[in-house]
Structures are given as C-alpha cells and as structure tokens.
Amino acid sequence: MKYKAVIFDLDGTLVNSIKDIADAMNIVLKKREYPTYNYETYKTFVGSGVKSLVIKALPDAKPKTEEVEECLIDMMQVYSEVCTNKTKPYEGILELLEALKTKNIKVSVLSNKEDTLTKKISAFLLPDYLSPVLGLKVEVDKKPNPKVALEICEEIQVKPEETIFVGDTDVDILVAKNANMLPVGVSWGFRDKKGLIEGGATHILEHPLDLLKIIELD
Out of 3.40.140.10, 3.40.228.10, 1.10.150.240, 3.40.50.150, which CATH number does the structure's domain 18-82 have? Predict the structure, then answer.
C-alpha cells in the first residue's frame, strides 16, 4: 500500500500543550476554590475535548450541568488567552513535516480541541501547509467518530486506506480503525505505549522521523 496522506492529532502528537491546558483549568478551579492538579494528572484528563476535561477536573464525580457549562465557558476564555504560552512542537516534528512536504504527502490535522483553538495553535506553531486543520465543532462528531476524518479524505481526494492516522491516545487509534486508516501511535504523548498497543496501533513511533520508515516500507 502506498500512503498518500497523514492525518495528525494535535495535542500530545504534534505539540506538547499540557502545561497551558493545565494552567488554564487550574485558574478556573482556583476561582471556585476547588482543588487543582499537576501536569501529569492532566495528561489523563485530555483526549476527548474540553468539556470532558472540565467534567473530569471538577471535584464532584457527577457535576451539575449548569456548573459544567459555566466552567467550560471560563476554561475556553482563559485557555484562548494562554494557549501558546508554553505549548511547543515536539522535537523532530517540524523536520518530519518538512520531509512529508518534500515527499508530496498530504498532511492534515484533526483534533478534539475546539476548532478555533486548534487552528490558532496550528497557525502559530506549525507550518502553514497543513490542510485542512480541523478541531471539534459539534460534540457528536468528536473522535472516535470517523465522520470528520473521512470528510478530510474526500477534501484532499485520498482514499482512507491510503491514509495514516497518527495520535497519542486510544481515541486516535480507534478513529483510525473506524475510518479504515492505518493506526499509528506515538511514544512521546499523553498516554503510554501499552494502551496504544492494546487499542490496536499497528506501529508505535519512538521519534517523529520514524514515520518516514513506515511510508517507505509500505
């Protein structure tokens, strides 16, 4: 199989954003005099969108809908202000993207982060030839729902089976499988390799440039 496209997850895959995410949520929690969490704990909260993060961070196991919505609004406002303070591409990511460009591999981003923030971070930190760059617009469409991933294939005119999906969580692996794409995990993200392998990842990248070996082999 000759792969013609790669769809990347954003957080934990292309960029290390956990500090900005955690700092923003902790500001929201402190405002309400709730307990806060360290960066490592926040790694277990992310992957399913900001609303899911808020629910996990609130102290009540089943927080009231009204409070979730209020905290979500606060979180979005704070995070939009700090989302590029400490967030950086992982080592080797920019080199990988340049290499993919040279090989004429189409490169896109699909994140469960809100769409505006996904675009903002990608535009600020990553090359402008990523296209399309899509975040979450409608809750029902969030990964592992394959709908948007398949829409990306239609837009860039590449078959799903010619596409590699790269991510750092079991959600990314599952959306790849649901969309009939090659599921590839990364070792440097917010989850451990064991969970990615158990989730069905075909390959685990130890370094971003390892992706080139998969493309060359296949």
Answer: 1.10.150.240
Catalytic option among 9, 20, 23, 74: 9
Residue type, 135: G
- Whether this model's pTM surpasses 0.85: yes
What's 84's DSSP letter? T
Is residue 11 flagged as an active site residue?
no
CATH topology for the 5-16+88-217 domain: Rossmann fold (3.40.50)
Gap between the Cα atoms of 98 and 154, Å rounded: 23
The predicted-structure confidence for 21-47, as pLDDT tens digits, reads as follows: 999 999 999 999 999 999 999 999 998
